[in-house]
Amino acid sequence: MKIATYNVNSINARLPIVLRWLKETQPDVVCLQELKAIQENFPEQALRDAGYDSIWHGQKSWNGVAILSRVGQPEEICRALPGEPEDNHSRYIEAKINEIVIGCLYLPNGNPAPGPKFDYKLRWLDRLIAHGQSLLDQHVPVILTGDFNVIPTEVDVYKPERWTDDALFRPETREAFRRLLAQGWTDALRRLYPDETIYTFWDYFRNAFGRNAGLRIDHFLLSPMVTPRLQSAGVDRQVRGWEKTSDHAPVWIDIT
Length: 256
What we know:
single chain; alpha+beta; Deoxyribonuclease I, Chain A; six-stranded mixed beta sheet; 14 strands; globular
């Protein structure tokens, strides 16, 4: 089963890109982030015509997450990360597909840091860690994937010295990500490619994509019941080079 994650940076603005990518690569399950569309404006029919059933949680102007499947209707479990009932950002949706629990997330950016947005990011990470532990305690196959807005190590960013004060790379952010991994999650791309330069995001400015001045911030975390099933993984880098595309590229894994 091929599972992909893709921060589309506006589902309706990028719909031709998404449909082309789906047709060319044919993932079985897709997690989308940054829909930037209210619930009623999600292109459900266009995706169904492409062969995908969908669940989604939209929000006006920003955020928004969705799970698509061509291997059975996603069975929605929840559409909010527990722990902060007053948080109304559309940043998490969870479903079961083929007996695998899949959590699709769009973690807060957190800039400028320090400040209220960074505090929210750290609280969100704490909530994700708590929820991650509750998922592991169920002893079922789980995949957490999406745009984590976390640069885990210096290997994951072009010129790391320029990012020391950024919320994506601050010590507090990376330490929280390490705490999450320490629960027993496996970073799928690093398991297969421990030392390679792999980026998933390139800014629109300063010819970042052409210079390969990127970041790795879109991740797949696998629970212990999924990790042995990992066969391959990669980044559809070519999609970032298409006209009017997102600043992220799709990331995927294949599991048995």
